[in-house]
């Protein structure tokens, strides 16, 4: 088999990331520029600000990744991959235009990548033996999806969130509790909430599990996370909780996290039932996306997959669960292999169903 190398560009949200990987899974280099210190004072990611920082830093990040890999873009890179969507429109366009220009000028194939497919396919980068079909739980700041993966570019969406994404709920709850963001890769508000929850008592406060009043049906394992945030708000006001007390913050964080996990597990059970009814021989459960870097979530998914369904949980290491350039490069490799090459005129798709 002939080896080839892909450079992947990711600018769908607030991280400017570039990764370089070879088709035999050899990770050659990467670079990432985080924008946490820009957005934390604003309470969340500001799209127009994020765009300006992508514009400022992307060229340097591309150069750093190439230098880190000790590669020459003309000689050593065979394919240019880039996140085409979903994501913040102004941010996507920065990465896409850079990738299109690089690709056309260098005469290399361009691969527009679906950001959520890239999160899912990361599991095939870390676990070479993982074959289709498998079940995928994608949990990030913008999406909460349960997918059945049949092949590259072939997914059946079994469930989504009806309102907020789970990562968004973590972020909003961290904000309600006034938690300082954790710094660095795998940092941010969600990681801060996890840290507080880890030192808290999940049983001190009771928070209702979402959607328990609705009819539970295998045909509709959809989720809802906006009510959780509201429940936290109600709890804080009703009990008149003193947020200067750090133990209160830890216990509320723990209650939130435990409830979010129970809701996820409940809906995953329905998805497993759906697959069982169709006699699908699943080769694993994949969990990926930023919130899949959460240790409590990973542990509970591991239990569910292993103890209840006797199936392997494949969860990429935290730095590959949160947004990164390698996942885009790898998705580019997977798509290129099956002939999915794009035109140099493609545009971004901010809302892109999988
Ligand atoms: O995949 P990702 O890096 O970017 C998107 O595609 O959205 O996911 C970011 C989301 C954010 O909402 C962030 O708060 C959440 O993932 N997240 C976490 C953790 N680390 C990141 N949520 C819970 N626990 C964490 N440790
Ligand atoms: Zn993501």
UniProtKB/TrEMBL annotation:
Cofactor(s) demanded: a divalent metal cation
Cofactor: record remark: Binds 1 divalent metal cation per subunit.
This enzyme's EC code(s): 2.3.1.234
Record's catalysed reaction(s): L-threonylcarbamoyladenylate + adenosine(37) in tRNA = N(6)-L-threonylcarbamoyladenosine(37) in tRNA + AMP + H(+)
Annotated Gene Ontology cellular component terms: mitochondrion
MF annotations from Gene Ontology: metal ion binding; tRNA N(6)-L-threonylcarbamoyladenine synthase activity
GO biological process, one term: mitochondrial tRNA threonylcarbamoyladenosine modification
Subcellular location: Mitochondrion
Signal sequence segment: none
Domain Gcp-like: start-end pairs: 27-330
Family annotation (Pfam families): TsaD
Transmembrane segments: none
Keywords recorded for this protein, A-Z: Acyltransferase, Metal-binding, Mitochondrion, Transferase, tRNA processing
Subunit structure: Homodimer.
Physiological role: Required for the formation of a threonylcarbamoyl group on adenosine at position 37 (t(6)A37) in mitochondrial tRNAs that read codons beginning with adenine. Probably involved in the transfer of the threonylcarbamoyl moiety of threonylcarbamoyl-AMP (TC-AMP) to the N6 group of A37. Involved in mitochondrial genome maintenance.
The family this protein is said to belong to: Belongs to the KAE1 / TsaD family.
Name of the protein in its database record: N(6)-L-threonylcarbamoyladenine synthase
Organism of provenance: Ambispora leptoticha
């Amino acid at each position: 088999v002939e080896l080839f190398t892909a450079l992947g560009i990711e600018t769908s949200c607030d991280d400017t990331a570039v990764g370089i990987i070879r088709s035999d899974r050899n990770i050659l280099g990467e670079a990432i520029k985080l924008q946490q210190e820009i957005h934390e004072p604003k309470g969340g990611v500001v799209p127009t600000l994020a765009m300006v920082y992508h514009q400022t830093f992307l060229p340097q990040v591309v150069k750093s990744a190439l230098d880190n890999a000790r590669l020459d873009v003309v000689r050593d890179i065979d394919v240019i991959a880039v996140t085409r969507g979903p994501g913040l429109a102004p941010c996507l366009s920065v990465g896409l235009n850079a990738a299109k220009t690089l690709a056309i000028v260098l005469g290399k194939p361009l691969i527009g990548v679906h950001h959520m497919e890239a999160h899912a396919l990361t599991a095939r980068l870390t676990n070479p033996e993982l074959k289709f079909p498998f079940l995928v739980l994608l949990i990030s700041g913008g999406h909460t999806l349960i997918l059945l993966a049949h092949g590259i570019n072939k997914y059946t969406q079994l469930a989504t969130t009806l309102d907020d994404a789970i990562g968004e709920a973590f972020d909003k709850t961290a904000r309600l509790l006034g938690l300082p963001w954790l710094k660095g890769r795998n940092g941010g508000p969600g990681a801060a909430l996890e840290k507080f929850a880890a030192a808290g008592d999940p049983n001190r406060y009771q928070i209702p599990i979402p959607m328990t009043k609705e009819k539970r049906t295998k045909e509709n394992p959809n989720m809802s996370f906006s009510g959780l945030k509201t429940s936290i708000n109600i709890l804080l006001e009703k009990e008149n909780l003193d947020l200067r007390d750090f133990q209160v913050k830890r216990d509320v964080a723990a209650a939130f996290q435990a409830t979010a996990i129970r809701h996820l597990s409940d809906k995953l059970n329905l998805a497993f039932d759906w697959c069982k009814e169709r006699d699908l021989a699943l080769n694993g459960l994949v969990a990926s996306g930023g919130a899949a870097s959460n240790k409590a979530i990973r542990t509970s998914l591991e239990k569910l997959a292993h103890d209840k369904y006797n199936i392997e949980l494949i969860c990429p290491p935290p730095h590959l669960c949160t947004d990164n350039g390698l996942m885009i490069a790898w998705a580019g490799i997977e798509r290129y292999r099956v002939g999915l090459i794009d035109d140099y005129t493609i545009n971004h798709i901010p809302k892109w169903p999988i």
